[in-house]
Write a structure and sequence with these properties.
By secondary structure, this protein is an alpha+beta fold. The protein is built from 4 helices and 11 strands, in the order αβββββββαββαββα. A hairpin with a 2-residue loop joins strand 5 and strand 6. It is globular and about 85 Å long.
Length: about 240
């Protein structure tokens, strides 16, 4: 009888643990699908707002999380607005998530002159913008890549249009699309090259930096030895 009692006790204990683990997995999957998701910054295109080695939680609910299998979106709490930092699906590489800043919404007329962004004929105040390497992406390949898509949306004569990183436009943002740029303006592969971002590609907004380390540190094992403690729990703006 004692052996049977012990077996039943063990089975009851195992069942309780199984239920607890299953419940935790369901909660985790629900949170990851509809509320938050982890994201790591792999490049310097958003410096100094976001750094290589930052780990973020992304708010997926804000702009309407996607329901798995059926591909439908939940209602958005609000629509993206100019100045929002967005995490989105790449328009060029399936499966890749990208983070940039929203600088143009449908109907906006955008241009750059000498590295200064203009929106609807007015200079845009961008305290987050960084200019560190004006010669980046300046070769003929990238200039041609810019021209190839921009001429369709260009205001004015396109016959002599020759855009580059610092001077382009004016172009008009079409309905259902956004224009995205990295804060590190001279070293960001962004909408200037690959075009407009469809609304349906938007996945969320960075919520908080929960971990950060200097990936370029000279120290061994920088994940443990070059932690940026001061960036913990900071909110990207």
């Amino acid at each position: 009888m004692a052996e049977i009692s012990k077996t039943r006790s063990f089975a009851h204990w195992l069942w309780d643990w199984t239920k607890s683990i299953a419940f935790a997995l369901v909660v985790w999957l629900f949170l990851r699908t509809f509320l938050i998701e982890a994201f790591r910054i792999p490049s310097g295109s958003m410096e100094d707002t976001l750094l290589v080695g930052d780990f973020l939680f992304v708010n997926k609910l804000l702009y309407g999380a996607e329901v798995p299998v059926i591909g439908k979106r939940l209602p958005a709490v609000r629509e993206p607005v100019r100045g929002d930092v967005l995490v989105f699906d790449s328009v060029e590489e399936p499966g890749l998530k990208v983070v940039k800043r929203l600088v143009g919404v449908p109907g906006d007329t955008l241009s750059m002159e000498g590295g200064q962004l203009y929106r609807n004929s007015k200079a845009v105040d961008e305290p987050w913008a960084r200019h560190s390497n004006p010669g980046a992406y300046a070769d003929a390949y990238y200039r041609a890549k810019m021209r190839n898509w921009q001429v369709e949306y260009l205001l004015g004569d396109s016959s002599t249009y020759a855009p580059d990183l610092q001077d382009w436009g004016p172009i008009v943002v079409p309905p259902g699309k956004y224009f995205m740029m990295g804060d590190n303006r001279d070293d960001s592969y962004d909408g200037r090259y690959w075009g407009f971002l469809p609304r349906e590609n938007v996945r969320g907004r960075p919520l908080v930096v929960y971990f950060s380390f200097d990936a370029n540190s000279w120290k061994p094992l920088p994940f443990f030895t070059a932690i940026r403690w001061g960036r913990f729990f900071t909110i990207p703006r």
